[in-house]
Amino acid sequence: VDGRSALAAPDLELARLLQRTGKRLILAVNKIDSPALEPHIEDFRRLGIAEVLPISAEHGGGVAELLDKLLEMVLTERGSEPLEPEATQMPGEEESPGGRVDRVAIIGRPNVGKSTLLNRITGTTRAIVSPVPGTTRDAVDELVEHNGHTIQLIDTAGIRRKGKTELMAEKLSVIMARKHLQACDVALLVLDASEGVTALDATIAGYAHEGGRSLVIVVNKWDLLSGAPGEVSEGNGMAGRGRAKGRLPREHARYEALVRDKLKFLAYAPVVFVSAASGRGMERLIAAIEQVAAERRKRISTGEMNRFLATIDFERAPVPAARRVRIYYMTQAAVSPPTFILFTDRNVRLHFSYERFLENQIRRAFGFAGSPIWIKTRARSRN
Question: Which of 133, 176, 275, 377 can pair with 280 through a Cys bridge, CB separation 3.0 to 4.6 Å?
């Protein structure tokens, strides 16, 4: 429901209709963008729905709590059994008549070469390319076939820092960019090699990371700094199964170290060096997209996960003894992004060091290159 509007007759009618189904319901009150708006929730309790959660779809507030509640309800319905693959299909995972379509958003600051990159990949000039920053005003979609694999490319207007955008068209383009980012499977974070990683680059990357989108870091305009052909660096996530092969030139290694120092939270993301203007590095970029999309959908059986769990020496985890939990077993509850449920002796949030330690162990064993990994806990009695 719209939290900024009064309770309306259609809301009451729809609530009564849903209540007659006998299903468990959650009332998500949207547009609650600040604590000052939370009193607006009380009016909607008249709908008679027990679970009421405030959210902000635009800014992401409360969405994680909503997903946690949905997952908890599904697990309860299934008696804590691991979810089957078909039960965890996420938006954007549907199959097209000719096979799977991976949705890829091209994101980045204005004038880093996003539209040129789209044009180079698709071989078209559908997006208007101009040296003036911010000339792509809306999202442009293109379907690309590569080795029987279909990619839907979304080129978005450059995301501008809040307060710096004057034109309404640019303000709207920011909103569209974030909406398309939420709908994609893989995000290509485009950087300008001549400018390095800026604070706004890191902020944009954070949108994708926090939203559970897989990422490929694309260092564009590399030919302006070096005549070397485009190469791909693998990222921590490539260290597991399905590792891509590639020789990283010395100058790439030095530049990649700078990128990773600024984007430490994207250690799992591969880095690809390209020139969208000349076409260098395009094949490697497409290969990286395909691999990252496949890793995002990877599913590990519960049996294999628990054999893996038994091999971990948790005494090595850099966590105070008082913050340790006993893990009975774990299961992969979802894909896109890979989501794992730990059944523990206490219903507590894992210490961030403990979670990072476990994530690193999962990546070493199973890969999940380019994809964030979500880890959640659920208490279970010793019996």
Answer: 275
Q: Are 382 and 343 in contact (CB under 8 A)?
A: no
- The correct answer on CATH 1.20.1250.20 for the domain covering 95-296 is no
Going by DSSP bridges, is the β-strand pair 271-273/327-334 parallel, antiparallel, or unpaired?
A: unpaired
Which residues, including other chains, have CB under 8 Å from residue 178's CB and lie 6 or more apart?
58, 159, 207
Question: What is the Cα 152 distance to its own chain's centre?
Answer: 16
Supply the DSSP string of 286-317, one letter for each residue.
Answer: HHHHHHHHHHHT----HHHHHHHHTT--GGGS
Name every residue whose Cβ is closer than 8 Å to that of residue 342 and which is 6 or more positions away in sequence.
325, 327, 330, 350, 358, 375, 376, 377, 378
Alpha-carbon dihedral angle through residues 212, 158, 116, 336, given to the nearest 10 degrees = 10
3-state secondary structure (DSSP) of residue 378: strand
Task: Check for a shared fold between 9-77 and 95-296.
Answer: yes
User: May I ask the CATH class of domain 9-77?
Assistant: alpha beta
pTM to 2 decimals?
Answer: 0.66
d(C-alpha 146, C-alpha 158), whole Å: 26
Residue numbers of the chain with a pLDDT score lower than 70: 60, 64, 71, 74-99, 124-140, 155-177, 179-180, 226-249, 319-323, 381-383
CATH architecture for the domain at 299-379: 2-Layer Sandwich (3.30)
Domain boundaries, the chain: 9-77, 95-296, 299-379
Structure tokens at 185: 């499977």
Residue 344 contacts by C-beta under 8 Å, 6 or more apart in sequence? 325, 326, 327, 328, 377, 378, 379, 380
CA distance 282 to 292: 15
Q: Which two tokens stand for residue 226?
A: 């070096």
Distances (CA, A) of 90 to 94, 110, 228, 263: 8, 30, 39, 27
Q: pLDDT tens digits, residue range 269-324? A: 999 999 999 999 999 999 999 999 999 999 999 999 999 999 998 877 776 666 67
